[in-house]
Amino acid sequence: MTDALTTWAGSHTFRGGPVVHPETVEQVADLVAGARHVRALGSRHSFHDLADGPGTLVVLDRLDVPTVIDPDAGTVTVGAGVRYGELAQDLHAAGWALHTMASLPHIAVAGTVATATHGSGVTAPNLSAAVRGLEIVGAGGEVRTLGPDDPELPGSVVALGGLGVVTRVTLAVQPTYDVAQEVWLDLPWTAALDRFDALMSSAYSVSLFTDWRGDAVGQVWRKHRVDGDAWTLPQAGDVLQGARPAPGPVHPVPGPDPVACTRQGGVPGPWHERLPHFRLDFTPSAGAELQSEWLVPREHAVAAIEALRAIAHVTSPLLLVSEIRTVAGDDLWLSTAHGGDRVALHFTWKPLRAEVDAALPVIEQALAPFDARPHWGKLFADQDRTLGGLYPRWDDQVALLARRDPEGVFANDFLLRHGLRT
């Protein structure tokens, strides 16, 4: 059984089993065909029971699928269990790149796209939006391939594991590029909110780190896309008025050594060594932590931020740090950025599960006027079970899950609890 198998930060212990590590797609198909209930696991970078289930747990870390770059199509096809940091190294060595990276390069491709996980940037949609094709082992063990024009693809990318075990993912790529990262400290809240759109558009990727207390944003991380050898670091401009440049490397969480972070100081380097906040060869983020995140439409960002500042007395004592960033919109049915540009409001919590669980409904009540969608892989409450009203294609998604998996082979408590399965 799986009493020792947990999510990466130890926030959930898996109850299903047996745990299997197939090495080929054929082995995955045989496992699914012979099992009553199946859930797929990648790098387990989630914080609750999303990937858990009552039956077989398929871990994809040993899946032997070659990485294939198609330069004519501008795509790469990769095994589902490959981590983004490893894929990025291979792509860069071949002269290619992804359009964005999440904060952590440690996460697996299939789990990342299945949960609409994202990087940051006003022009950068989430990682799921780069998907151009999927290979899925469905209920009964059949292997299906979905291409870019398949009408089911928008409902199959962010499917929370409910359609089967994804074994291959095809992603759009582009020529490799460099990025330079700089950090500023103590930006006054008045300046940040008065010029919020300009601030978040002042670089290819911008992140604000805060504990919600005081009169200033603790850190502003700006990641600039470098084009050409004559590149120079942009001036601070009005958007950083009142802030000061960091005197040296910093960690977004107060206390830990910044050696785990990607290089700062405005020094250009390969995209995959700057777009994530953390280096692949170090423990990501703080390690012992919990996480939550809600995404609100860009037009509601300032009001939502003010609402969160008003409840700092609830959240700040439990926080390691919060992050504010942007995500461009997409058309994937369960994507948290479906239908328009979003601002992500992220919370990295101390490992205090009971206290954090108590704070979640307070946050969701504060964000309720702003159509806030919780990140699927992180902690949220959804006490009133109202998620369906936040997604225009919700009923289509529910119908697709029921049609492709009528016996509920891939159903689990998470999908049942939030109304995606009955």
TrEMBL record:
In the UniProt record, does the keyword Oxidoreductase occur?
Answer: yes
Signal peptide feature range: none
User: Which key words tag this protein in UniProt?
Assistant: Oxidoreductase
Recorded hits in PROSITE patterns, A to Z, give:
FAD_PCMH
The FAD-binding PCMH-type domain extends over 12-176
Q: Which Pfam families does UniProt cross-reference here? A: ALO, FAD_binding_4
Q: What is this protein called?
A: FAD-binding protein
Which superkingdom heads the taxonomic lineage of this protein's source? Bacteria
